[in-house]
């Protein structure tokens, strides 16, 4: 692809990963262009921030639609109207239906605050602490119809320290989310990361296991 990668970002909250992605774009480290920031919540803080940045924004509240299928169809139409090469889920707190996921198959990424396949879904930091795990982290994965079950392409690990509570652990993980998500998007923009026939390829080779950042060293350039 010539020129910056056209991206639509979906958010539900404050959009800290959106801000990290935008910062990398502004710094010239990520060859992408945010076409629009969309949310299921009209009051999402990320929308106000994006509007201040001069980015196109839009809200598609689920309560405006008769059912989930109608909501997902409407959201998919709004996304498609921008013709993105990649859809980036950045704290989007709605479970997407199969038709919507399949509409953007192979070009939809998500970041999840756990070392998938461990702890899909919500409350990951609490579950890690309750399990007594020594390690936690974040995962970037392609979105499939299985909740947080798509192929994982990149992970960052962080230690669980004595005395950690949910907030402390969440902040440590969030720092790594802000590192690895723009990196994975960059790889996609550069054509290094692709899904081919259901197989994730990195630099043309099947990716047998997620690439890893240990929380201190940079990932592959």
What does this structure look like?
The two termini are 19 Å apart. The radius of gyration is 17 Å and the shape is globular. 32% of the residues lie in helices and 25% in strands. It folds into two domains: 104 residues, Formyl transferase, N-terminal domain (Rossmann fold), CATH 3.40.50.170; 111 residues, Rossmann fold. The chain has an eight-stranded mixed beta sheet with strand order 3-2-1-4-5-6-7-11, with helices on one face. Strands 8-9-10 form a three-stranded antiparallel beta sheet. The chain is built from six helices and eleven strands. Helix 1 crosses helix 6. Strand 2, helix 2 and strand 3 form a beta-alpha-beta unit. The protein is of the alpha/beta class and 221 residues long.
CATH superfamily of the largest domain: Formyl transferase, N-terminal domain
The coarse overall form would be globular
Distance between the termini: 19 Å
- Oligomer status: single chain
Query: What composes the largest sheet?
Result: 8 strands, mixed
Poorly predicted runs are 216-221
Mean pLDDT: 94
> Strand order, biggest sheet?
3-2-1-4-5-6-7-11
Count of individual domains: 2
Fraction of residues in H or I helices: 25-40%
Q: Strand tally, please? A: 11
Query: What string gives the helices and strands in order?
Result: EHEHEHEHEHEEHEEEE
């Amino acid at each position: 692809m010539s020129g910056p990668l056209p991206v639509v970002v979906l958010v539900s909250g404050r959009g800290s990963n959106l801000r990290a992605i935008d910062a990398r774009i502004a710094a010239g480290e990520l060859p992408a262009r945010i076409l629009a920031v969309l949310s299921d919540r009209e009051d999402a803080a990320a929308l106000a921030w994006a509007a201040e940045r001069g980015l196109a924004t839009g809200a598609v509240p689920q309560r405006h639609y008769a059912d989930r299928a109608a909501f997902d169809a409407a959201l998919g139409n709004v996304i498609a109207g921008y013709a993105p090469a990649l859809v980036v889920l950045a704290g989007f707190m709605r479970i997407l239906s199969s038709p919507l996921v399949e509409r953007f198959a192979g070009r939809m990424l998500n970041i999840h605050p756990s070392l998938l396949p461990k702890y899909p879904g919500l409350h990951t930091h609490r579950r890690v602490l309750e399990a007594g795990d020594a390690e936690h982290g974040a995962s970037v994965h392609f979105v499939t119809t299985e909740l947080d079950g798509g192929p994982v392409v990149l992970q960052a690990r962080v230690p669980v320290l004595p005395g950690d509570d949910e907030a402390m652990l969440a902040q440590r993980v969030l720092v790594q989310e802000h590192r690895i998500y723009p990196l994975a998007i960059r790889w996609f923009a550069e054509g290094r990361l692709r899904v081919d026939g259901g197989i994730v390829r990195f630099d043309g080779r099947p990716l047998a296991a997620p690439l890893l950042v240990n929380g201190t060293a940079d990932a592959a350039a």
